[in-house]
Amino acid sequence: MLIRIVSPLTYIIVFIFFSGCLARPIVVKPDSDEHVIQNRSIEDSVLGIAKTGDWLVIRGYHAVDNLVSNATGIPISHVGVYDSDSQTVIEAEGKGVHVSTLTEFVDKSYRLLVIRPRWLSDDNAQPAILKAHQLVGKNYDFLGTIGFNFPSKYYCSELAIFIYKPWHSEKEKFPKVVKPGELYLYGNVLYDSRPRDEIE
Predict the structure, then answer these.
(1) Which CATH number characterizes residue 78's domain?
(2) For position 5, what pLDDT does the model report?
(3) Which residues, other chains included, contact 175 with Cβ-Cβ below 8 Å and sequence gap of 6+?
(4) What is the pLDDT of residues 23-67, one digit of tens each?
(5) Is this model's pTM higher than 0.90 or not?
(6) For residue 74, is it within any domain?
(7) What distance in Å separates the CA atoms of residue 175 and residue 147, rounded to the nearest whole number?
(8) What are phi and psi of 16, to 5 degrees?
(9) Per the domain annotation, does 21 fall within a domain?
């Protein structure tokens, strides 16, 4: 039996070839006054549009964000749940479920969308965000990102969907892995900052 060993160079070439299908396979956070000015504008837009329970869906700058975007073929990589009362975002990252300020969340976003989940209502916004806060401290669901979900562990879009579970219809079906870039299928896009290098 012949076993062929693939060199690391082959993997690099394949990655570059396929990542070329994306407009921006890698984005790097700039250290500039323009970035700070854009932060303020994006944050002001979120404050004016988003309400408790909305999803803040982003393309982030972290290496993992680049990996997610390239792996899914979608220029979106992460999501958090917004709490308008405290102006914070509950999110699940490698370090687990935690809380970030809105300012911190905006700063790490190359592009930000506000999506209103289709299950969100005035009656369930507080119970849903309370559930999100109760999950703070839970571990990240690394295997869930490839379809092997573990109870009491969450990846970002799994968390976003899970807090609305009591209001899901019995007829609704979800894929094994809910991609951040597909969350628009479960809500309405209210705002899109656009990629930062397209903002005038």
Answers:
(1) 3.90.1720.10
(2) 53
(3) none
(4) 578 999 999 999 999 999 999 999 999 999 999 999 999 999 999
(5) no
(6) yes
(7) 9
(8) -65, -40
(9) yes
Cα dist from 162 to 91, 129, 182, whole Å: 12, 11, 15
Task: Report how many domains make up the chain.
Answer: 1
Buried b (16+ CB within 10 A) or exposed e, 150-179: eeebbbbbbbbbbbbeebeeeeeeeeebbb
- Cα separation, 125 vs 138, in Å, equals 21
Please state, in angstroms and rounded to a whole number, the distance separating the CA atoms of residues 85 and 92: 20
Residue 143 lies in a domain: yes
β partners of residue 59: 111
What average pLDDT score do residues 157-177 get? 96
**Mean predicted lDDT score pLDDT of the chain:** 90
Which helix (H) or strand (E) covers residue 63, if one does? helix 63-72
Amino acid code (one letter) for 95: K
Q: Tell me, what's the pLDDT at 9?
A: 45
In a domain, 166, yes or no: yes
